[in-house]
Amino acid sequence: MVKIKKNIAISDSGFVFDPGSGDSYSLNPSGLEIVQMIKLGKDFSAILEAVTEKYEVDSDSFERYYYDFIATLAQLHLTEPDGKD
Amino acid sequence: MEKIKLTIALSGLNNIDSPGPGIPVVRGLRDSKEIDARIIGLVYDNLEPGPYMHDLVDKSYKVPYPSDGVEPFLERIRYIHQVEKIDVLIPNFDSELFTFMKSEKILREMGIRTFLPTLQQFEERHKSNLPEYGKKYGVNVPFSAPITSVEDFRKMQDKFEFPVVVKGKFYDAYIAYDMDQVALYFNKIAAKWGLPIVIQEFVRGTEVNVIALGDGKGNTIGAVPMRKTYITDKGKAWGGITLEDPTMMDLTYKIISQTKWRGGMELELIRTTKNELYMIEINPRLPAWVYLAVAAGQNLPEALVKLAMDIQVAPFTKYDIGKMFIRYSFDLIVELNEFEKLSTKGEL
Amino acid sequence: MTKLAFERPIIQRINAGLPSKYGMSHRLEPLSHIDGTPIKDLIGEFGSPLFVLSESTIRKTYKEAHRAFSSRYPNVQFAWSYKTNYLNAVCNVFHQEGAWAEVVSGFEYDKAIANGVPGELILFNGPDKSTEDLQKAIRNNSLIHIDHFDELYEIIHLSKEMTERPKVAIRVNMDTGIYPKWDRFGFNYENGEAWDALNRIMANKNLDLMGLHTHIGTYMMSVDAYRIAAGKLADLAIKLERKHGHVLKYIDMGGGFASKNTLRGAYYPGTDTAPSFDDFAEAITSVLMSSDIKPDHLPMLILETGRAMIDDAGYLVGTVIANKRLADGRRATILDAGVNLLFTAFWYEHDVRPVQPVSDQTEDTTLYGPLCMNIDVIRGNVMFPLLKKGDQYVIKRVGAYNNTQWMQFITLRPNVVMLDSKGNPHLIRKREVLETINSQEVMPEHLKQFKL
Question: CA of C394, closest CA in chain B: separation in Å?
Fold first, then answer.
């Protein structure tokens, strides 16, 4: 399961601060929602359920966006390296 | 005397190693005995120091870049104006001036005053037009030509001798000693500031500068000549000293009266070993070293705001000669939540 | 309960650094309708991608240009530059507005004739006119703009064999202070070649010298160059009257006016920097009006501007094929229209918009076309909202040159529709089918069969 690094600070405005690198990022609202769910320990299927319930999106599309998004988080070193889903 | 309360919005708050004029302009306004200013910062980047300098800047807003076009810019100004009721707006970046001049009338209708050169004054002093400018106003200028590709330069290479100066449309200038360096700097500047790039004859001598303010009717409201005592590797002044130099002053009066220059300006001149003055560039705004003029007795930012407000300004007649400035850097301590506010909300 | 619209999740680094060309992104307003007609419906009916031309924009732009010149000069005539867009429906809108035809090849000449333009209202420009083209033009009393001495001598030769008198003008090239100088077309002003050519025409009793023509460049942002050009043509006109007592019928200032598109590498958007028709008109007419040409001898002023007349009226609409992430993390969005259809993408930073309101968020994106070629880039590094596969886009200001320079490469050219003044679509060029291409090919007998 994907895990966001423990020391990453995420504010309600979508501002992300990585104290390890000193870099900061901003999340769009859906990005923020997903990151918060990941932080709560939800796995892909739980997130998929929550998102498709609330939003107009089919599971195929969401799956693509989700994994692209997770890949970006990994590229930015914001997830634990051994995190697997 | 009671001070006039004014809300003044300005940009150029990047008070870094190669500083914009914003913070020095604010210092001049803060020194004013006539104006009680509320300063609104217009910022492009989350790391411009100005927004975090709370004793100088009261409130800051992020604005879109001029390259996005007039409309998005005006939309943002309308929003800021709604909140802040701006009286005077002072753009401090060359790259903004075109956008501001284009919007001058609309801003005026909104109740925002500016004091800018006219589009014609702005266009004809462009680096790429310098030779014609020199001819028209009888000023020595180095030979120069605009190019849109390195190939262009290859074709006219026989008109130049190395080294040459490679200059951007708005900023940046590098001395190139061979073709490879011309290509290198061409690409570097073009990527940042677009085309054309100007190739200028390299004139050997001492760089001297004049800061001046024209009232738009041909009168010089203030002018202070200065020599940079040391120049950083970015070509910016490290320190400078005011000069007594009637020929530089005469040249300034001549240019301002002939062009009926309106607003602040900086003349970049080279004094050759034969004691001739060459004009390298006219910057159509107050330069970053404007506070030296303030300290020498000419508060040009204050005068510019008064001109914008249609308040009578008597021309300055003197300044302190031998006044120096030494630029220093200072590590401002910033809380992360302030950075977060500016970067996510666009206001601080 | 209706569900909320979903937006792709993204994370972006907050860039810290000095101001550069790309700044605080502003919201890219979607464009859902053209002339009141939903783009979605147009794609539904005519397919994707699709060129859409707005008749009312063409007419509005034409009237605006005509007003700018005719309010400043007594005798103004426009000629539609066929090469800019020679779809017949487009040409006919201009002809209905009163424009003559300006052509640069025998093919374009025949097109104008087939559209019903009277021969004497066709300006024939360009360096490539065959003997047959010239004979046809002379027979139809068309206005032949001579490009070089070989052409002049050929016309003189033909004039001896034919009963009709050739109606000619010369194209003049000159230094107007701009770079690059267009000196490969016409006769040079500065070195006296143009004056020489005019004297030879005057010396020949079979030719009627009608006017002077120049075309100083393309995508001109400076009106000063036109001021200089008009001054030089006026000088020639005055010299002709002084020496030969000959009064010219017209001065043709050509075209080249910039449209509102943004050139690649430009710092400011074209919408801010392109001079208006009034600016061009003021520069040109003020010089002619204040020249030494006698007021009752003022020649007709002809304008052949193409790009500025039609660019705004054209739209290319289409559909997103896919999204990708490039190796460096940037977003790549693949569109169903590439540089084969949008030739102008090579020199413009086209204004690309989403059709549906998708998102306030934008991301640094490169927009690719569908071709198997690395150069197939519609826009590099643009802050663009997050479109999904199947979302629609619209590219603005594509009316000039794309319908004439498009390529049939690995795919077929799509439908072109024109929206009439009520916004109703009319198909004006049918999408190509395999037969369109194959019908032109001939298979040698021995290649007809193969066994695999």
Answer: 19
